[in-house]
Every structure is written in C-alpha cells, then in structure tokens.
Amino acid sequence: MKLPSEFVEKMKGILQEEAHRFFATYEEEKASGLRFNPLKIDRNTFLDIVPFALSPVPFCPTGFYYDAHEQPGKHPYHAAGLYYIQEPSAMFVAETLQPNPGEKVLDLCAAPGGKTTQLAAMMKNSGFLLANEIHPKRVKALSENIERLGITNTLVTNETPEKLASRFEGFFDKILVDAPCSGEGMFRKDDEAIRYWSEEHVQQCARQQQHILECAYRMLKEGGILVYSTCTFSPEENEQTIEAFLQKHDDIVLVPIEKAAGIQSGKREWTNTGLETIERTARLWPHHLQGEGHFVTKMKKTGPSPVWKGRYASSNVSKQALRDYRNFEKATLQIEITKTMYAFQHHLFALPEDCPSFDGLKVVRAGLHLGELKKQRFEPNHALALALQRHDVQQSLDIKSDHIECMKYLRGETLSTGEDRGWLLITVDGYPLGWGKEVKGTVKNFYPKGLRINM
Ligand SMILES: C[S@@+](CC[C@H](N)C(=O)[O-])C[C@H]1O[C@@H](n2cnc3c(N)ncnc32)[C@H](O)[C@@H]1O
C-alpha cells in the first residue's frame, strides 16, 4: 500500500516510538464487522442462525468481527435487515452517545447510516430521530438502510446543517456529529481516501468541522449531549477541533469516556494549549485494537438554550385515503398503526413520535412508509414489510434461506403456491423479506426492482 509521504512523516512525528506498530497494521488485513439488529432479532437467536463464524467486538454489545473471506452482504438475512455491516471501531460512536427510547436525537452527517441504524435500535424505534445527509446521492443509501433495518422512528432529510440549525434551535436531547473528515482511518479499505489525502484537505476539513459543530451547538437543549467523531487521525481534525470549539463555548464541558478494550485517550500534547481535559476524549487506533480507527468526544451543554418555538407535524390525510389504508390493514395485518399519518401526494407515512413540522425541508423519508394509495385500493410499501414481524400479518409465506425459492424471490421472480390469499408477507426463516400478492396459485413479486439480485 502506497501511503502519502507527507502523511507518513507527520504520523512518525506525532506517534514517535509507537509509529512502527501503527505502520505495521497496513501490512495486515482490515477489520471486518457487522452488528446484529436488535429491532428484529435477539443476540442468542442471531448467533444460533447466522451461518458465519463471529467473534464479539469488545466495545459494542451488538457488534461482531467476521472473517474477511465471508460475504455477509450477499446472504438473504442481510436483505431481511438482520444485521448491518460496519467497520468495528465506528461501532463505538453510538455506544458513546447512548440515546434512550423517547428522546429527541439528531444524526447530522448520517449517510450511509451505520450510526443512525445503531442509534434507532438503541432507542427501540421510539422517540424521534432526525437523520440528515447533505449529499443527495448518499442520502438515498441512508434511506434504504433505514428501510432495510425496519426503522420507524426516523425522519430522513437532505439538508445543510445551517438550514436545520435555523429550524431546530434548542430542540434536541442528543446530537451526533460524525463529521466529514480526511478519512485517514479508511486507508486500509479505500484507495480513494489515499488518493484524496493532502495536508490542505486536512485543514479544509478542520474548518468545515468547526462550522458543523457550531450548527449542532445551536440545536442542543440545555443539559443536552453532543458526540463528535471522525475516522481520521490528524490532531487538527480531532483534539484541535474540539479545543477550538470549547474555547468558543464556556457552557460546553467534556464528559469523560470510559477507556477499555484498548481504547486510548485523546492527547493533550496534540492541542495548541496543552488542554488537560482533552484526555476525556477517546482514540481508537488500529495498533491498539481490531478496528480501522476513530476519534470520539462526548460533550454536555451546561448553559441555557433558546426554547424551541416550532410546531409538531399533524396529519394531512384525507378521510378517504385513511379509509383505504384501514381497509388494507384490516384485511392484511393483525396490528393497527396508531401513529400520526402523513401523505406525500399518494404515498402514506406513519410519522415518528414527537415529529416536528417539516414544511420547507427536503424530506426523503418521514418515518414508516406504509404504501401508496392507488385507485380505491392500497398497495403496501417494502418498508412496511421490513418493519413488521411475521405474526403481525394474517398471511405469510415462509421460505428457507438455503432454498432456491429464496433466490427466486430476491431475483424478482414469481412463486407458485396453488392458493389465492391476496397480500402475503414473504419471510426467510421467519424474518420478513418483502411482499407478494397471491392470485390464483401464483405469487406476484413485490420485491423492489432496485434491490433485486442478478444471479
Ligand atoms: C463520516 S461520514 C458519515 C458516516 C455515517 N455517520 C455512518 O455512520 O454511516 C460524513 C458525512 O458527512 C457528509 N458531509 C459532507 N459535507 C458536509 C457538510 N458540510 N455538512 C454536513 N455533512 C456533510 C458526507 O456526505 C458524509 O456522508
């Protein structure tokens, strides 16, 4: 691997006697990890059914390492949202924020959704999570991952941090800024990150991080928690970004992060003022643990915040549309969705709890996408299938993960059953994969075209 020479010199300078251990990790395989999804499966059942060898990530109770030769992204359990593939050190970030059910949480730089999906699971799909991504292409991947993992408490937006800050002053209990950075911790898994690296880019990222943190600050309640993280090593984007932020705000204090399992402290020598409390921050290094590397800071806002003056979203759904949905619900489900409903043209959503009004914001997903209102009938969305449990529906068709029928379904082919039951939840080993509509012995395939596999 050819590392940028300026990067090598800089790391040798700051790491000194540790540098050779750090550089030796570039000769080793990258760490591969996945997190099981507690919204769909418990730990023991997951370990019973998962067909790969796994070993636990010591700093994340839902995280596991898998061998590099495995391809968990291709297994039907991935399509069923039973797990999320995530770089192991990244798993520590949401663990540090520790959101609770019922809280109002913001993930400001969220795509592709590794941390969002972890946060939503920790919140047990309740409360309100705003997952924002500034880049229109990346927000699509975020939204798809939220759908696959069966997340229903999340509003996905495609906004700038400034726009959100002007709308949500003093609104959030907890905020995550997983900042865009120079990605030095990505070098083992992404050649692009190596090619893109320059000292100038490091400085540019540091300026941008300051700006994003300022926006986050405005949105935090008094007593609120702000976690800042990067997947880069440079002190300018880590200790120094936090140092500058603390200098601007005397009502922000660093909350100590417990260090275990090889997690190290941030370094006071790497601040401009020798800031002692920076040791409360955490550094995950590839030569101290199995992971690509992260920097994590936990902060608390102790001073007053403006009282949020916005309003909450209310339903805009017509009586007829609601009737069409309820008819579908009665005929197909065993549960009733009681959340506030919202329609974007013909598409019906069940909003997260405590969802603020999103008028004027670029919304990509507003909670659970229930489906589409077609002429006097309702067609369920894939997201609804993935947010259900098998027993939530009246009719389901279970296929085995190692059976050809499962591949046929994921390829978008029809299935033959000989029955005529209408909407069926198609499950793999009991876990929802998508919808099918059974008419006269044949199940029409509603697995989304964009997700179908070709093999
Ligand atoms: C480190 S990545 C986030 C990874 C994500 N949290 C996860 O766990 O999957 C940083 C994200 O910030 C976004 N970003 C870039 N510039 C930004 C800006 N000016 N404001 C907010 N976000 C930005 C990037 O598009 C990128 O998706």
UniProtKB/TrEMBL annotation:
| Keyword field | Cytoplasm, Methyltransferase, RNA-binding, S-adenosyl-L-methionine, Transferase
Name one molecular function that GO assigns to this entry.
RNA methyltransferase activity
Name the SUPFAM superfamilies on file: S-adenosyl-L-methionine-dependent methyltransferases (SSF53335)
Concerning InterPro entries, the annotation shows: Methyltr_RsmF_N, MeTrfase_RsmB-F_NOP2_cat, MeTrfase_RsmB-F_NOP2_dom, Nol1_Nop2_Fmu_2, Nop2p, RCMT, RsmB/NOL1/NOP2-like_CS, RsmF_methylt_CI
| UniProt KW Methyltransferase keyword | yes
- Report if keyword Transit peptide is assigned: no
Residues the record marks as active site: 231
What are its GO biological-process terms? RNA methylation; RNA processing
Report the residue ranges that make up the SAM-dependent MTase RsmB/NOP-type domain in this protein: 1-302
Q: Which residues bind S-adenosyl-L-methionine?
A: 109-115, 133, 178
Q: What's this protein's family per the entry?
A: Belongs to the class I-like SAM-binding methyltransferase superfamily. RsmB/NOP family.
Protein name according to UniProt: NOL1/NOP2/sun family putative RNA methylase
The organism is Thermaerobacillus caldiproteolyticus
